[in-house]
Specification:
CATH class of the largest domain: Alpha Beta
CATH superfamily of the largest domain: P-loop containing nucleotide triphosphate hydrolases
CATH architecture of the largest domain: 3-Layer(aba) Sandwich
Structural class: alpha/beta
CATH topology of the largest domain: Rossmann fold
Distance between the termini: 92 Å
Strand content: 5-15%
Helix content: 40-55%
Number of strands: 5
Largest sheet: 5 strands, parallel
Order of helices and strands: HHHEHEHEHHEHHEHHHHHHHHHHH
């Protein structure tokens, strides 16, 4: 059976017996107004609304759309809405299982539908980043000739994973992670809507909060867990989905963690203090609690970046670049894959040699400045590049260190009031030992080791 015929048959079965479909499918929005989240894409006059024919201009824009966002944010949903709103045939393929043969079969079917019935086709291609360059090339004729309206979904950056010719012919829409309130609204709609549970069950507040933690901003995960728990509740003959039922159904305990309350800060503090204390196992435990609770991975990455400077510093100069790279990766990929990156970083920081010498150094320097210990810049260090500077004695007597064999000149750099002040006192932990040697050598050659 051709892919488009298979999809049509599945939709027909769903219409005849909606209960045969998963809850996430039954609750799929029928229009853009029912879509949760993605408000930046749903404003009046937005490209997405013009694509489905809303507005005075009617349908407009390119015949290819790329939806980029984390799992469960509505990429498949938007593809279905485009199909419904434009009254087009809908065909769904996954790049995991489909190849060029299946793509060509859909394109041939779309061309027959245009010629025989005058009906256009929406081809939804999930996980397009899994297609090779040659496989993506096979889509170009259909896109250029508008034989299909291609709606492609990806969780990876399309600038790296989609070929340039296809990307340049596409409208790129970036989907944002759903907020807890977005998912909450969807859960409550599923409880009462006839397409969902039709008011047969109630959802206590503590169960709802745990469902939100389980979901982690993924609407599909939230509805799947709700459906499983609802089935268990009905089997037990109860009218309420209790927390214990949900825990048993999804096999995830309701760990106490409030992302807006004390637990948020307590667990984050425990993570950083475990890293500082070099207890890699405790650090991984607290990281796992934050991940499991649906904490924003960018928040975790920011905390670890701070730790790399505050607690490790120059004992391992690679710690901060590693933390920055991890934060960039986390921002690009999101959960669930970001858990691997955060675990990698947490282990590396926990096992790194520790030093807060750089932290105390800048703290001491700031304290002096705030207390008014400053004073004028020594004349020989002042800017001498403007007319009249020489008459003021600025830059006179300055010794250029590169002109000396050892590359260091014995001259005063700090203001008079601070000429003997030392801020940086390096440890000999890890790589900072070489900085300790460098400080000792430079202070000697600057003449600062003499009374």
């Amino acid at each position: 059976m051709e892919p488009d015929l298979f999809t049509a048959a599945a939709e027909e079965r769903q219409e005849k017996d909606p209960s045969a479909s998963p809850l996430a499918v039954r609750m799929r929005p029928r229009s853009l107004d029912e879509v949760v989240g993605q408000r930046h894409l749903l404003k009046p006059g937005s490209p997405l609304r013009r694509l489905v024919g809303e507005g005075s201009g009617g349908p407009a824009g390119p015949s290819s759309v790329i939806l980029w966002g984390p799992p469960g944010t509505g990429k498949t949903t938007l593809a279905h809405v485009v199909s419904r709103a434009t009254d087009k045939r809908f065909v769904e393929l996954s790049a995991i299982t489909a190849g060029v043969k299946e793509v060509r079969a859909v394109i041939d079917g779309a061309r027959r539908a245009i010629g025989g019935f005058g009906k256009d086709t929406v081809l939804f291609l999930d996980e397009i980043h899994r297609f090779s360059k040659a496989q993506q090339d096979s889509l170009l004729p259909a896109v250029e000739n508008r034989w299909v309206t291609l709606v492609a979904a990806t969780t990876e950056n399309p600038y790296f994973s989609v070929i340039s010719p296809l990307l340049s012919r596409s409208l790129l829409l970036t989907l944002e992670p759903l907020t807890d309130e977005d998912v909450r609204g969807l859960l409550r709609r599923a409880l009462t809507d006839e397409r969902g549970l039709g008011g047969a069950l109630t959802l206590p507040e503590d169960t709802e909060e745990h469902l939100l933690r389980i979901a982690g901003g993924d609407a599909r995960r939230a509805l799947t867990a709700l459906e499983a728990a609802a089935g268990a509740a009905l089997d037990q003959g109860t009218g309420s989905i209790g927390l214990e039922i949900l825990e048993q159904t999804v096999d995830r305990a309701a760990v106490a963690y409030d992302r807006d309350g004390d637990q948020h800060y307590d667990v984050a503090s425990a993570l950083i203090k475990s890293v500082r204390g070099s207890d890699v196992d405790a650090a991984l435990h607290y990281l796992a609690r934050m991940i499991d609770a649906g904490e924003d991975p960018r928040f975790i990455a920011r905390r670890l970046m701070i730790s790399a400077s505050e607690d490790i510093g120059l004992a391992d100069p690679n710690a901060l670049p590693l933390a920055v790279a991890a934060a960039q990766a986390v921002a690009m990929i999101g959960f669930p894959e970001a858990a691997l990156t955060l675990g990698h970083l947490t282990i590396a920081l926990a096992l790194a040699p520790k030093s807060n010498a750089a932290t105390t150094a800048i703290g001491a320097a700031l304290e002096d400045v705030r207390k008014g210990h400053a004073g004028p810049v020594p004349p020989h260090l002042r800017d001498g590049h403007y007319q009249g500077a020489a008459k003021l004695g600025h830059a006179q007597g300055y010794v250029y260190p590169h002109d000396l064999p050892e590359g260091i000149a014995e001259q005063q750099y700090a203001p008079d009031a601070l000429r003997d002040r030392t801020y940086y006192n390096p440890t000999r932990h890890g790589a900072e030992a070489r900085y300790a040697d460098a400080v000792e050598w430079t202070r000697k050659h600057l003449g600062r080791d003499r009374p």
